[in-house]
Amino acid sequence: MDEGGKVAQDVDMGELPMAEHTDLHAATGASLAGAAAGAAAASAAAAAPAGGTPTAAGAAGPAPADFCVVAAAPASVTATPWASAPPAANAAAGGDIALPDVVVYLASRPGSPDAPPPAAGPPAVAETHLSVGCQVVGPFVVAGLGMVGAGLYLDMVQDWNVFVNVKEIIILVPSLLGLKGNLEMTLAARLSTEANLGHMDDAKEQWSMILGNLTLVQCQAIVVGLLSAVVALAMVYILEKEEFNIRHTMLLCSCSIITSSIASLVLGLITATVIVVSRWLKINPDNVATPIAASLGDITSLALLSWVATMMYDAIDKSYWISPVVIICYILVIPFWVWIAKKNKYTSSVLYSGWTPVVVAMLISTSGGLMLHKLLSRYPQMAALQPVINGVGGNLVSVQASRLSTELHQHSEPGTLPPGSQICITPSQACCSRQPHAMTAQVLMLLVIPGHLLFLSIISSKYLQRDALDLTPLFVVTYLFVAFFQVAILLYVAYILTYFFWKRHTDPDNSTIPYLTALGDLLGIGLLGISFEFLSWVGDDYAIAPEVPGAVTTLPP
Q1: pLDDT above 90 covers what percent of the chain?
Q2: Which residue, 167, 242, 319, 538, shows the most beta carbons closer than 10 Å to its own?
Q3: What own/partner pairs with CB < 8 Å and gap ≥ 24 does 467-474 have?
Q4: Is 86 a residue whose pLDDT tops 50?
Q5: Could you tell me the maximum CA-CA distance found in the chain, to the nearest angstrom?
């Protein structure tokens, strides 16, 4: 086996029964002396019956019934030795067979109860429900509080002049908030995998990896920020037959680029720091990096968007040239970021292959933004809930996707699934089996209800201060149901997508999280809208609440 624990080369076992199907024990034995010596020893071993006693010096007696003797293997293959004979001992040994520099191994027969699973990667501590929960719950609560803050902030700023008069900005909100899934959470997943594989233990490699990934994220942030603004404008002008406004167009594009670039830089630095500290503290970064990125992503992006948009909007009449200059400057700096990312060995491949998931996810999130724009005109109280339900779903599924990707990197090669695995499984297999991924899914789903209850209580207390109606029991039950349903769907899709991309030789770290967080945004907005429609239909007080003071119930055309 190689250092990753995967079988490096099949061993020619001659006449040994079932030898070509055996799995060698964990890689802890001595290396053999070469292919020629290995082939000779294997041929000699073939003359002895399986399970028999080798005649070389150092033999340990008859092989156990559940094992067959493997006399030799290629030099790159190591296993737990059963008996060994160094060259001198072999030369001095009598008997019918002399084995030069050979280590005799045992290989478990297929189906044997003693057959161990293949070892993989550096030694890892087995995780339990409790250990995973303890590592996840803290970052999850912190992330949730950040999302609650973003929701309350969105509820406050939706009546600002720039949000009222440039209504396309509301459509931008899910797309820009989704950048944490498209870029920062993807960055967290990539660096977490590298850290778990031990590639960040060297300080020089660590800095090279972080620098390359930050430049890559800057390049992606500028492009995606510009594209999201263009798509939002196209949706408004085409679908709603709005009159084209060049100043609003320039304003939206410049605000989107500035917000995405600054937010990605700040969050990227924080994410890299969290992963490095996690390694020092012996904590699995897969469990904490993505929630931390999510905790600050929403509020950071939303605050930047509102402040930048307000300043640009106030200056647009006197200094209309500011927006075009900002756009041109950011476009001109893209080749510089591309050049750095291309020269970095850790990001050169992602620079070309990582665009499709990010762009598709942006399109999905922007579609959700158009849906949010329509729903907020009818249910302004949704503003405080939208970042929470979207963020919690994206947060939890990102933890699962990151862990699944790390497990695949440790136990198999791209294009090859671990033994006994398949792409399409049933929901019960994804969440209720005894596999590690199902254990993680169970822990994450257990966090949904208490987490949302905590976040709803904070939102409710804030609304009470504004003399709005309290959350009704029917609303709470309906909201918790759609939130749990959203997370269950996302966790199931996470398994399928991760294994699907791995089978197609695509790194899930760069592909799955953007799709999953974008799907989480679309599901969250859609399910939340359906719940409000249902509650309004049955006459629930919260869904048909009077206008919240300061909220915009109808956005102007």
Answers
A1: 11
A2: 167
A3: 467/549, 468/381, 468/545, 468/548, 468/549, 469/541, 469/542, 469/545, 469/546, 470/542, 471/542, 472/540, 472/541, 472/542, 474/535, 474/538, 474/540
A4: no
A5: 100
Same domain, 56 and 201: no
Q: For residue 506, give the amino acid letter.
A: T
Look up residue 223 and give its amino acid. Answer: V
* Stated length of the chain: 557
484 CB-contact burial (10 Å; exposed 0-12 / middle 13-18 / buried 19+): middle
3-state secondary structure of 498: helix
- Cα–Cα distance, 402 to 193 (Å, whole number): 8
Give the number of domains in the chain. 2
| Domain membership flag for residue 120 | no
Q: Is the pLDDT of residue 285 over 70?
A: yes
> pLDDT confidence of 40, banded at 50, 70, 90?
very low
SS3 97: coil
Contact 34, 105 (CB under 8 A): no
Can you spell out the DSSP letters for 239-306? Answer: HS-PPP-HHHHHHHHHHHHHHHHHHHHHHHHHHHHHHHHHHHTT--HHHHHHHHHHHHHHHHHHHHHH
Residue with the two structure tokens 């509820």: 155
For the chain, give the mean pLDDT.
72
Phi/psi at 321 (5° precision) = -75, -15
Encoded tokens for 512: 């799955």
Residue 258 · residue 308 · CB < 8 Å: yes
| Same-domain check for residues 408 and 492 | yes
Burial class, 420, CB count within 10 angstroms (exposed 0-12 / middle 13-18 / buried 19+): exposed
Alpha-carbon torsion, ordered 424, 427, 431, 437, to 10 deg = 10
How much of the chain exceeds pLDDT 70, in percent? 71
pLDDT tens sequence across 454-471: 888 888 775 544 545 567
Are residue 210 and residue 340 in the same domain, yes or no? yes
Q: How far is CA 281 from CA 135, 275, 375, 409, 555, in A?
A: 12, 10, 45, 22, 50
Same domain, 133 and 249: yes
Q: Is the pTM of this model over 0.85?
A: no
38 and 84 part of one domain? yes
Give yes or no: residues 82 and 175 share one domain: no
365: its two tokens? 């999130």
* 427 and 532 part of one domain: yes
Question: In Å, what is the CA distance from 201 to each residue of 349, 382, 407?
Answer: 22, 45, 19
Range of 61's domain? 19-108
Shared domain for 301 and 447, answered yes or no, is yes
Q: What is the pLDDT of residues 131-146, one digit of tens each?
A: 777 777 877 888 778 7
Give the pLDDT confidence score for residue 75 in this predicted structure: 39
Question: Rounded to whole angstroms, how far apart are CA atoms 195 and 190?
Answer: 9
Residue 244: count of CB within 10 angstroms of its CB: 9
Q: Which two tokens stand for residue 509?
A: 């770290």
Residue written as tokens 């019934």? Answer: 65
CA-CA distance, 262 to 60, in Å (whole number)? 66
Q: DSSP class of residue 557?
A: -
Question: Minimal CA–CA distance to 158: which of 381, 460, 314, 456?
Answer: 381
